[in-house]
Design goal:
CATH architecture of the largest domain: 3-Layer(aba) Sandwich
CATH superfamily of the largest domain: DD-peptidase/beta-lactamase superfamily
Distance between the termini: 98 Å
Mean pLDDT: 85
Largest sheet: 7 strands, mixed
Number of helices: 23
CATH topology of the largest domain: Beta-lactamase
Number of strands: 30
Structural class: alpha+beta
Length: 753
C-alpha cells in the first residue's frame, strides 16, 4: 500500500516536471521563433529613437497663383525630456524629484516626478549659455509638459538664425535629449493682409488622444487649422506625416540620423481672391479705424477681396502665441479678430435697394410720393434727414428718391409694397441668412417681418411704423457687407443672385485638380421674383444718378475711367452713449458691363457719401490702374491695421470731384436707434505659449570669439579668397553624424554677435 502511494507520487512529480519542461520549451520557441523579430527590435531600440515627423501643409494661393501662405524652414531646438532624465540618472545615480498634487483614479494624491527643471538648469542651460543661444523660457510650462505630454518633445526654441544654427553644428554639444532640427513652419507671406480670411494654425488640442501617439518614442504632432481657411480646409491642407530614426549611443546621447521617411505635403488651396486687389482694398480702408470692404465679381459671385480693419498678423500665432500677446489681443476693445466684412450691422439707406426691388414686384415702378419733411405713423412722426436742414424733397419718382436718398419717400414706398414683398425679396437675395462661405464668424443678419417678430415676441404686433423703419435699413434690420455685395451684384448683372464664392480650386502637389466647384445661383429675380429686365434696370438707373447727377449723395465716387453706380447709407448708432454712425457705400462698375462690385462699411463716421464712397472710389481707381497696366502693384507684407474710436468727418484722397456733387451727403433719421449688430469672433483655439517665469530666466555668458590666424593652404596664392563658411551644410552634416573631411574646408569662425 505504501509502495503504491510512493509510486503515485513519483509519477505525479514526473508529470509535473514534464509539463513544466514543455511549458519552458514552448516559451523559448515562442520567444526565439514566433516573436523573435519583435523582441530583437525591442533590444535594438535602446540604440535608436523613433521620431514622428509632422506632415507638411499645402499652400494657400490667390486666383493667379500668388502664394499667400507657404511653409518656410525653421531651425528649432527640441528637448527630449525622458532622455534627459535617464542620462542624468546614469551620470549621477539619482534623479532630483519634485512633489505635486495630482489625481489617481480621480482621487487627489500627493505625487512625485522627476524635477526636469533642475535637470535642464544643471546640465543643458549652462552649455547653451556658453555659446550664446540660451533663451528665457517658462520653467513651469516645462515641468507640466513632462507631466502631461512627455512623449512629445518640448520645443525650447523655434527661431534659430543661421549663425546660431551653425554654432550648434560647430560645437556638437553632445547633450542627451537635445536635438536640433529643421521643420517646416507656416508663414503668412504678406503679414496681416487677408488675415481674417486665411486664419492660422496651432498644435492639436488633445495630444494624448492622437491615434498613433504610442507608435513612436517621440511624437511631433501635425499643426492643424485653428481659424478660417486654415480650419475649414484642414483636411485638404494637412498632408501625411513622416518619420526619423535617430542613433543613440550607450550614454543615451543622440548622435545623428539613421534613416528618414519624408512627410507628404497636403493639397494646395487656390482662393478666388486677387492678391493685388486685396492689397488695394486694405490700403484704402486704413484711413479709418474700424470698417470693412468687399470686392465681388458680379458675373459669378467670386470674392476678389475682403478686408477688415483693425487687423492682426497671423504670423504671431506661429508656432504659438505668447500669453501676453494673446491677452493684449483679447482686451483690445476695437476687436481686431472680428471680420467686419461678414459681421452684420444696420445697412441704412443701402437697404433702399432691396426695398426698391420689392416695390418693383408690387408694380410701383411709376409710383410717386411726396416728401414734406416726414410721415406720421400712429403717434410717431418719422422725419426725413433733409428736415434737419429745414428743407423738403417735394414730389419724387423712384429714381430721384434713390438719388437723394429720401427717407419720407421710402417710408411710404415700403408700406405700399408691403412687408410680405420685402421679406420675399430679402429671402431671394440671401438677407437674414449666412452665405455659406467656408470661414467662421459669419453673421446671418436680420430680415425683420411679422413672423420674425412673433418668434422673438409673441405678444408684439407688426406695424406700418416698423415697415417704415425697415424701409430705410434701420430699426431691427441687420446685414453684412458681404450680403450687401451680393445684393449689389444682382443689380449689376441684371437679376442673378449668386452665392459668394471664396474657394476657386483644390490642387494636389502633382498638379491634379482635386476639387473645383462652379459658381452657384441662389435665385433669379426675373424668373423667381417675376421682375422684368426693365424693372431691374429702373433701380440700376437710380443708382447711376446717385453718383453721376447733381444732387446725388455720392458725387465723390464719380469716375470717368470706370463709370460707377452706387448707393450711400448712414445708420444712426450710439456706442456707450457716444454717436458712432455706421456708414455705407455699395457700388458697381463699369456701369454698362459691370465687372466689379465694391462695398465699403465704416464705423464711427459722419456719412456714407463723405466717408465710405471716397474709399470705394479709391479702390475702383486702383483696380482700374492695375487692370489697365497703368500701375504695377508691388505686394509687400502689411503691418496690422490699428483700430480706434475716432469719429471720421470725411475722407479725401485728393480726387477731382465736381463742385456740385460735393455738397450732398445723405443723413438718416429713424424711429429708434439701430440694432446693436452682430460681431462674432471666429472659432479659434490658438496655441498659447506661457510667458517666461523667474525659474526660466537665463543669462548668456558668451564671450567675443577671437579670430585666429589660418595657416596657408598648399598651393594658395597671395590674396586668394579663403574658403567660405557653409553653416547650412555643416548643420546637416551634424544631424547626420558626419564629420568634415579636412581642416582645409573647415568654416571660418565669425564673431558672435
Amino acid at each position: 500500500m505504501k509502495r503504491t502511494r510512493a509510486g503515485s507520487r513519483i509519477l505525479f512529480l514526473g508529470f509535473l516536471v514534464l509539463v513544466s519542461m514543455g511549458a519552458i520549451t514552448w516559451r523559448l520557441w515562442e520567444v526565439q521563433v514566433l516573436k523573435g523579430s519583435e523582441y530583437a527590435s525591442r533590444v535594438s531600440s535602446g540604440s535608436q529613437v523613433t521620431v514622428r515627423l509632422p506632415a507638411v501643409r499645402g499652400e494657400i494661393l490667390d486666383r493667379n497663383g500668388i502664394k499667400l501662405v507657404e511653409n518656410r524652414a525653421s531651425f528649432e531646438v527640441d528637448f527630449y525630456l525622458p532622455d534627459m532624465v535617464r542620462a542624468y540618472k546614469e551620470a549621477k545615480g539619482a534623479v532630483p524629484m519634485v512633489s505635486y498634487r495630482g489625481k489617481v483614479h480621480n482621487m487627489p494624491r500627493d505625487l512625485k516626478e522627476a524635477d526636469v527643471v533642475k535637470i535642464v538648469s544643471e546640465t543643458v542651460i549652462p552649455r547653451l549659455e556658453e555659446i550664446g543661444v540660451a533663451k528665457d523660457y517658462s520653467a513651469n510650462a516645462l515641468q507640466i509638459h513632462y507631466r502631461t505630454n512627455r512623449e512629445v518633445p518640448y520645443n525650447y526654441r523655434q527661431d534659430l538664425n543661421f549663425d546660431e544654427m551653425a554654432l550648434f553644428s560647430e560645437k556638437n554639444l553632445g547633450l542627451a535629449g537635445v536635438n536640433v532640427s529643421v521643420k517646416p513652419v507656416r508663414w503668412y507671406v504678406y503679414g496681416s493682409m487677408a488675415a481674417h480670411i486665411l486664419g492660422y494654425v496651432g498644435s492639436p488640442r488633445d495630444l494624448d488622444k492622437l491615434p498613433d501617439l504610442r507608435s513612436f518614442n517621440f511624437y511631433e504632432p501635425d499643426v492643424e487649422g485653428k481659424a478660417q481657411i486654415e480650419l475649414s480646409m484642414n483636411e485638404h491642407l494637412k498632408g501625411k506625416p513622416g518619420a526619423r530614426i535617430l542613433r543613440r549611443n550607450a550614454k543615451g546621447v543622440i548622435e545623428g540620423e539613421s534613416s528618414r521617411r519624408e512627410p507628404v505635403q497636403g493639397n494646395n488651396v487656390h482662393l478666388t481672391l486677387d492678391a493685388k486687389i486685396q492689397a488695394i482694398a486694405e490700403q484704402a480702408l486704413r484711413v479709418v479705424g474700424r470698417g470693412a470692404a468687399v470686392v465681388l465679381d458680379p458675373r459669378n459671385g467670386d470674392i476678389l477681396a475682403m478686408a477688415s480693419v483693425p487687423s492682426y498678423d497671423p504670423n504671431v500665432f506661429i508656432p504659438s502665441i505668447s500669453a501676453t500677446d494673446w491677452k493684449n489681443i483679447n482686451k483690445d476693445e476695437t476687436n481686431p479678430m472680428v471680420n467686419r466684412a461678414i459681421s452684420a450691422y444696420a445697412p441704412g439707406s443701402t437697404y433702399k435697394i432691396p426695398i426698391a426691388l420689392a416695390g418693383m414686384r408690387a408694380g410701383l415702378e411709376d409710383k410717386s410720393f411726396s416728401c414734406y419733411g416726414g410721415v406720421q405713423y400712429g403717434d410717431k412722426y418719422m422725419r426725413c434727414w433733409i428736415a434737419e436742414k429745414k428743407r423738403t424733397h417735394g414730389k419724387l419718382s423712384l429714381e430721384d428718391a434713390i438719388k437723394v436718398s429720401c427717407n419720407a419717400y421710402f417710408y411710404q414706398f415700403g408700406n405700399a409694397a408691403g412687408i410680405e414683398q420685402i421679406v420675399a425679396i430679402g429671402n431671394m437675395l440671401g438677407l437674414g441668412q449666412k452665405s455659406g462661405i467656408p470661414i467662421s464668424g459669419e453673421s446671418p443678419g436680420v430680415l425683420p417681418g411679422p413672423e420674425w417678430l412673433n418668434n422673438i415676441n409673441p405678444r408684439a404686433r407688426w406695424s406700418n411704423g416698423l415697415t417704415a423703419n425697415t424701409a430705410i435699413g434701420q430699426g431691427d434690420v441687420l446685414a453684412s457687407p458681404l450680403q450687401m455685395a451680393v445684393v449689389t451684384a444682382a443689380l449689376a448683372n441684371g437679376g442673378t443672385v449668386y452665392y459668394p464664392r471664396l474657394i476657386d480650386r483644390i490642387v494636389s502637389q502633382d498638379g491634379k485638380v482635386v476639387q473645383q466647384d462652379p459658381p452657384r445661383v441662389r435665385s433669379n429675380l426675373l424668373t423667381d421674383a417675376g421682375l422684368t429686365a426693365a424693372q431691374v434696370n429702373h433701380v440700376r438707373q437710380g443708382m447711376w444718378c446717385v453718383v453721376n447727377e447733381g444732387g446725388g449723395t455720392a458725387g465723390r465716387a464719380k469716375n470717368s475711367e470706370m463709370p460707377t453706380a452706387g448707393k450711400t447709407g448712414t445708420a444712426q448708432f450710439w456706442r456707450s452713449g457716444v454717436k458712432d454712425n455706421h456708414t455705407w457705400f455699395i457700388s458697381f462698375a463699369p456701369f454698362e458691363n459691370p465687372e466689379y462690385v465694391v462695398v465699403v462699411f465704416v464705423q464711427g463716421a459722419k456719412s456714407g457719401g463723405g466717408v465710405s464712397a471716397p474709399i470705394a472710389a479709391k479702390i475702383l481707381d486702383g483696380i482700374q490702374k492695375y487692370k489697365s497696366g497703368k500701375e504695377d502693384i508691388q505686394l509687400a507684407a502689411l503691418e496690422p491695421a490699428k483700430g480706434n474710436f475716432l469719429f471720421t468727418e470725411s475722407v479725401d484722397f485728393g480726387r477731382e470731384v465736381a463742385a456740385t456733387n460735393k455738397l450732398f451727403d445723405d443723413g438718416e433719421t429713424a424711429e429708434s436707434p439701430s440694432a446693436t449688430g452682430q460681431e462674432n469672433r471666429p472659432a479659434a483655439e490658438p496655441t498659447v505659449r506661457a510667458d517666461a517665469d523667474e525659474a526660466g530666466r537665463v543669462q548668456n555668458k558668451t564671450q567675443p570669439r577671437v579670430e585666429k590666424a589660418q595657416p596657408a593652404t598648399a598651393g594658395a596664392q597671395p590674396g586668394a579668397a579663403k574658403p567660405k563658411s557653409n553653416p547650412i551644410g555643416n548643420f546637416f552634416n551634424f544631424l547626420g553624424g558626419k564629420k568634415e573631411k579636412s581642416k582645409e574646408t573647415k568654416p571660418e569662425k565669425k564673431e558672435n554677435r
